[in-house]
Every structure is written in structure tokens, then in C-alpha cells.
Amino acid sequence: LINVLSFIRKEFDVSLSIALLYEDSLTISALAKIISDHKLGLAAHKGNERTDLSNEVQNVYKMLLTSTEPPNYTAAPRLLTRKKIVFLTGATGYLGSEILRQLVTSASIQKVIVHVRAATAGKALERIIHAATLSKWWSISYVSRIECWPGDLGAPNLGLPAPQWNILTGECGPDESISGIIHNGAVVQW
Questions:
Q1: Which residue has the higher pLDDT, 20 or 66?
Q2: Confidence at residue 76, expressed as pLDDT on a 0 to 100 scale
């Protein structure tokens, strides 16, 4: 989505917010009209307001922590007390490291599966520890709550082996299911 916004800004000299692209009612035709209206100075779209990224991260975090009872579900007590497993990309960056800190310090999160660009799980963990140490929040006690999956966002199936891909896509047993995905990573080319 960031690439789409960047393209629109470069090609049409129009700055739009990412919130606009997340609107359920947005169609290609509607987006074209919004760009056209901006170019002509006719209208400012309500999605053009600035987004408070810190507030948005907090809202996602609160949403992950909040469990609501599914209607007519008899096993709700088990589900409501079950700790969550979260899949996180981009954890070695500035924002990603903070997201990871909040997740591993939360009592409602059992484990954070971290997708890291690395050759092995050990090398991936080293990158996580390095980023967290630079951010001054690392504690060895967090190791038990972090599982590193080395991979590549630009590769098919994120560069994950079939068993991990099956867990990520929900093609596994309910005990291995991932409760939430926070995609904070980006494809990088060095």
C-alpha cells in the first residue's frame, strides 16, 4: 500500500493517507475520482488527514488483547483464557522492535513468532536481540516467548518451509493457530 501511495504521489503529485486505501467502500473508480478531484482542487477527501501511527499501533495492540465471546459458543471459557500467538514481521526495525517489546511483555501473549530475514533461526534471534539491545529493552527472559522463523518477504510463501507456512495460513491444528498477524516488514534490497 505504501508503494501505491508513493506511486500516486510521484505520478499525480497528490498526497493521500494510507487510511484511504483501507476504506471498505473504496473502488478503483472512486480512487481515480479522488485523485482527479485533488488535482483539480475540487475536494479534499476525508481520508487525507494525517494518521497518528503511535495511536494506530496502540489500537491494534488493544484489539489483540481484547477477546470477545463468540455467540452461542459452549467452549468460550477455554478460548477466552487461551493466550495468543502473534506472527510479526519487521521486528528488527525501529517500530517493529517496539511492537515486539509490547507483545513479549503482555501477559495475554503466549508467543511471538518473528519472521526475520536470516539464514537460520539462530541468526534471526541474534538480529532480534541486537535490535532490542539497541532499543534498551532486551532481557534474556524474553527468549522463551519468541520463536524466530527465518525467511524473506520477497520470496514465495515468505521463504518459509511448508510446515511453518501451513501454520501461518491456518492449515494446522487449533493448538498451533496464530491469533493475529502484524505485518510491519518491508521487502529490502541491499
A1: 20
A2: 44
CA–CA gap between residue 88 and residue 106 (Å, rounded) = 15
Long-range contacts of 65-68 (CB under 8 A, 24+ apart): 65/106, 65/108
Rounded-to-integer distance, Cα 88 and Cα 81, Å:
22
* b/e map 73-112, b = 16+ CB within 10 Å: eeeeeeeeeeebbbbbbbbbbeebbbbbbbbbebeebebb
Give me 76's grid cell. 468460550
Residue 17 to residues 21, 25, 53, 139: CA-CA distances in angstroms?
A: 8, 15, 12, 37
List of E strands, 29-126:
84-89, 109-116
**CA separation (Å) from 52 to 18, 19, 43, 55, 163?**
11, 11, 23, 5, 37
Integer Rg of the chain from CA = 19
How do residues 36-63 score in pLDDT, each as one tens digit?
Answer: 888 777 755 444 445 566 666 677 667 6
